[in-house]
Design brief:
The protein is α/β, with parallel strands linked by helices. 49% of the residues lie in helices and 18% in strands. The protein has a 5-stranded parallel sheet, sandwiched between helices. A 5-stranded mixed sheet has the order 7-9-10-12-11, covered by helices on one side. Strands 6-8 form a two-stranded antiparallel sheet. The longest helix has 86 residues. The mean pLDDT is 90. The chain binds adenosine-5'-diphosphate. The site of adenosine-5'-diphosphate (ADP) has 22 residues, from helix 7 and helix 8.
């Protein structure tokens, strides 16, 4: 009985049930029979009926009593009811539940045409109601989808606005960072020009020139680094950051870099403790970039305290640690600083917030990783892990 429309007929006389069923049979209808009010109630709770045809004069629960019970239950309240009665038409109003749903009457002896047309009316009504219900559900679903799309659109719009804001901030940061070394160069050039015009040859003595060139070189390097960083970020974004591994001696590389940084004459002493000949297939240029970034930060944020660099191997990986004893990083910032453009607020940072982002991507490109341990006011230790065999 899987038909879409279910009809219930209730009569305590089996012959009547058979006769009625034969009369109301229709395509797509399933007819359920009940020989008492109680049996009918059980069926009513189990199924959803389009129509109930109730014999009024049944022994036990009468058709009217059953109808009143039906009107009292939420599930059955709106099922249209057709009473079958042999009594005169004046009995028609003995049932009081009209207001809750459709009610009609059929009179015995049953007229074939009247029964068929009444049932058809209710079946059609039920079908229409089902169709309306289906359309309402479809409409609600469409509205839900529309709301979801709208929410997605709003999120995308917010993201776009955030991205635009980041781009604007980035442009102004870049402009600011480039302007500083450029202004220094421009000022120095003007000073030199004036000395030249005044014939002040002592200003251009060999030691003076050496000093000038190294100062100029510093400004140029700082600008080149900035531009390289920006190019790297765009390479990372486009998935074009390439690694060219070759046999690299990490111990030698660290030795050279620590010496270079020490020769810069900064206030922090830098010491290196390295296992000898830690060798692997890495991109030497990129590994140098990682270490330069970490050492630059250690100098920048290291409060002029000593900096320790160590290199050791463990579990088939090389571990480089750059430790400073400077201002440190608050726990809530320790993840964020590896994201692009993130600079810890309230610090006079001169960077773009790109160094650690690039460093992390470079480590990842070597199938390695970078992590930090830090305490505010106590210093930071950045550890780079590079697999020895890739
Ligand atoms: P930036 O170029 O601004 O230094 P980085 O990506 O290298 O960008 O670093 C992001 C932020 O992380 C810095 O602005 C700084 O606040 C913090 N930071 C990085 N290294 C250290 C360190 N050794 N000690 C304390 N803070 C650090």
């Amino acid at each position: 009985m899987n038909s879409d429309i279910k009809l219930l007929i209730v009569d305590d006389l089996p012959d009547n049930l058979l006769a009625l069923e034969a009369l109301i049979r229709c395509d797509g209808c399933a007819i359920y029979q009940a020989s008492s009010g109680e049996e009918a109630l059980t069926l009513l709770l189990e199924h959803e009926f389009a129509l109930a045809i109730l014999d009024v004069q049944m022994i036990g629960m009468t058709g009217f009593e059953l109808a009143e019970l039906m009107r009292g239950m939420e599930k059955t309240r709106h099922i249209p009811i057709v009473f079958v009665t042999a009594a005169g038409r004046d009995l028609n109003y003995a049932f009081k539940g009209y207001e809750s749903g459709a009610v009609d009457f059929l009179y015995k002896p049953l007229d074939v045409h009247a029964v068929k047309s009444k049932v058809n009316v209710f079946v059609d009504l039920y079908r229409q109601r089902q169709e309306v219900k289906r359309q309402v559900t479809a409409l609600e679903e469409a509205r839900r989808q529309q709301d979801m799309l709208l929410a997605e659109l709003q999120t995308a719009e917010h993201e776009l606005q955030d991205a635009l804001q980041i781009r604007d901030q980035f442009m102004s940061m870049v402009a600011h960072e480039l302007r500083t070394p450029l202004s220094v160069l421009s000022l120095d050039t003007q000073v030199r020009q004036r000395h030249l015009e005044q014939g002040n040859s002592s200003f251009f003595s060999a030691p003076q020139l050496t000093h000038m060139f190294s100062k100029d070189l510093r400004q140029v390097k700082s600008m080149s680094r900035l531009i390289e960083d920006m190019l790297d970020v765009s390479r990372i974004r486009n998935g074009k950051l390439s690694i060219r591994p070759s046999l690299t001696n990490l111990s030698w590389l660290l030795d050279r870099l620590v010496e270079d940084f020490s020769n810069l004459g900064g206030e922090s002493a830098i010491t290196l403790t390295a296992e000898p000949d830690v060798v692997g297939m890495w991109d030497e240029f990129r590994i140098e970039q990682i270490i330069v970034n970490l050492l630059t930060n250690a100098l920048r944020y290291g409060a002029s305290q000593p900096i320790e660099v160590t290199l050791r191997t463990s579990n088939n990986a090389a571990l480089i640690v750059v430790r400073d004893h400077g201002i440190g990083i608050a726990p809530e910032e320790q993840e964020r600083i590896f994201e692009q453009f993130v600079r810890v607020a309230d610090r006079s940072s001169t960077g773009l917030g790109l160094g650690l982002y690039i460093t992390k991507q470079l480590a990842a490109a070597h199938s390695g990783a970078i992590s930090v341990e830090s305490r505010l006011g106590k210093g930071s230790a950045f550890t780079v892990k590079l697999p020895l065999n890739r």
